[in-house]
Amino acid sequence: QVKLVESGGGLVQAGGSLRLSCTHSGLTSDVHAMGWFRQAPGKGREGVSCISQLGDFTYYQESVEGRFTISRDNAKNTMYLQMNSLKSEDTAMYYCAARSRPTYGFCSAFQRDYNYWGQGTQVTVSS
Hints:
By secondary structure, this protein is mainly β. It is built from no helices and 11 strands.
């Protein structure tokens, strides 16, 4: 079983930056593509960004393109999301997710394609 733990959330002013981390433990051979999702109050969960197992493919939701950067360090079993130029609309609970089945050179932005989830870390951007 794989366990995912997010960290790095907090309160920041608009225009500021945060870096989220997601560390996984358990069977590392079960962790392939990974992604970040978020859920704002009263809204559904949406895909923000994802990264393939080797980091050779990334995806960003249009609203975060150019402001967020996803990366992973497989030696440390950790994925990151560097968030710059934060806006009030980025306020949400951020979740990391991992997929146990391989998708070589690709990652998905859909929740249904991930079977491991973290508990979430809150990001609040004040305007």
